[in-house]
Amino acid sequence: MIPATEEPSSLRLPVRAVTLVPIQPIDPAALDEISEALRLRRVKVHRRSPILRPRHSYDARRRQLKADALLQRVAEVPERPVLGITNADCYAGGLNFVFGIAQLHGGTAVVSLARLRTGADKSTFTARAMKEIFHELGHAVGLKHCEHRGCVMRFSDSLADTDAKGEELCASCSRRVPSYFQRALP
To answer: What is the CA 82 to chain-centroid distance, rounded?
Structure first.
């Protein structure tokens, strides 16, 4: 949540503009909530029409989507930074699940909302989604994981980790973001 005394424009976020690409399955209401939450944080949002997940992205044995296949599909969108959003549960490599995945320095990221809803009311879900979105967009603009406890770039492998970290970049990570991504696009 944004403290009442702080102007949203002073938030240390990895981007000031993003293209959202819904990936089926997606809950339109959740997408509206996320778009509005980003706008409230002074991130300009351009929403594209929903896309279908690639056929080869579904692992029937695991009943999950391959996050890297979704990332490849989203990378086909020419705008940068671009963020794919899905309700599907995702995994990557040898991990049981991922909240998201990004192409380091590639301007491309994907976030799965599936596990972020677990035990969450609307406010908690939105806070989790913002943290994971900003985390993956941080990777997309070139940031690596951070050890600072409050930094959004701190690694999360559980909901407790996501809930414990902040929504913003620490001062050190904020200084590393290329200035192109820090300004809002026209």
So the answer is: 10
Structure tokens at 21: 């690409």
- Structural domains in the chain, CATH included, are 12-144 (3.40.390.10)
Ordered per-residue pLDDT tens for the chain, 186 residues: 444 444 444 689 999 999 999 999 999 999 999 999 999 999 999 999 999 999 999 999 999 999 999 999 999 999 999 999 999 999 999 999 999 999 999 999 999 999 999 999 999 999 999 999 999 999 999 999 999 999 999 999 999 999 999 999 999 999 999 876 766 544
**Cα dist from 120 to 15, 60, 103, 136, whole Å:** 26, 27, 28, 21
Secondary structure of residue 152 in the 3-state scheme: coil
From CA 54, how far away is CA 177, in angstroms rounded?
A: 31
* Catalytic center residues: 136
DSSP 29: H
Q: How many CA atoms lie within 13 A of 91 on its CB side?
A: 12
